[in-house]
Amino acid sequence: MEVERVQAIATLSRSVDTIPLEYIRSEKEQPAITTFQGSVLEVPAIDINESNETSLVESIKKASEEWGLFQVVNHGIPIEVISHLQRVGKEFFELPIEEKEEYAKPEGSKDVEGYGTKLQKEVEGKKGWVDHLFHRIWPPSAINYKFWPKNPTSYKEANEEYCKCLRGVAEKIFRCMSLGLGLEGPELMEAAGGDSLEYLLKINYYPPCPRPDLALGVVAHTDMSTLTILVPNEVPGLQVFRDGLWYDVKYIPNALIVHVGDQLEIMSNGKYKAVLHRTTVNKEKVRMSWPVFLEPPAEHVLGPHPKIVDDRNPAKYKTKKYGDYMYCKLNKLPQ
């Protein structure tokens, strides 16, 4: 049961130098073996308040093509808004397990919303060293407040405040990515769902792990979303696969981390690259992150944007409903 899994992690995080076999990754995944030692990866850091739009578009285009990942600085979201989001999220995960379980994903639900949900099928029964909470924060029509914690009492206020600020940042990034493909500014976001685009928040909570050399928080994956915009805490853990190796990503205080997701790779017909990434855990400290996945509604149809495909540049990806794409990916079926 999910409760048993969460309780096990909480108990095991206090153990000394031992974790059960189901948390030990194979040698081809173990961080101690597969992480490049000696340097962290300085992914592009982009000042989104750059006054020269042509320069900003080029920076985001290049990062999306070559990295699939960049960090946004000078984004305009007040530090106190991000700190409030982090504080209430941390306070929720420090509650007793029984109180957190009140927000658990309902039995048999096909959606991801809820506490402690397990997203992907794992190979060979392995588990990630992580607990999490999913709920949508935008648009209002997609929000189900029963998955929003009532304790701490300012949880709702903090999330709404952050979402209000985040939407402006997301729209600016989409505009630049659209222009980078030779499209009009609004066209890429419209193709992704426009006003119906859903902002799905996930809070990842990684307790201290006695053997961080053997375990992973989240296994290697690309995000299904269009964009993912993430707030980390100060404990490093994000790794990116590049040139055949796993690299730690340098933490930049107050920056937002932006991932290109599968749907942007599809819509750009492969020009923008979805980034393969994973997360490691820490022996002494709690690591947390707050990714927001910008997802089309399940019935929304996506494919390579018709304005960037022709006889010389044929479509490299199928056009399909986002819900069908999700089903295939989560169940490891061919697309």
TrEMBL record:
**Record's keyword terms, sorted:** Dioxygenase, Flavonoid biosynthesis, Iron, Metal-binding, Oxidoreductase, Vitamin C
Please list the GO terms describing molecular function.
dioxygenase activity; L-ascorbic acid binding; metal ion binding
Fe2OG dioxygenase domain ranges (all copies): 196-296
What cofactor does this protein call for? Answer: L-ascorbate
> Is the rRNA-binding keyword given for this protein?
no
What InterPro entries does its record include? DIOX_N, IPNS-like_FE2OG_OXY, IPNS-like_sf, Oxoglu/Fe-dep_dioxygenase_dom, Plant_2OG-oxidoreductases
Q: Which SUPFAM superfamilies match?
A: Clavaminate synthase-like
| Keyword Nucleus in record | no
Q: Which domain of life is it from?
A: Eukaryota
An individual GO BP term: flavonoid biosynthetic process
The Swiss-Prot or TrEMBL record describes its family as follows: Belongs to the iron/ascorbate-dependent oxidoreductase family.
Q: What is this protein called?
A: Flavonol synthase
Gene that codes for this? FLS
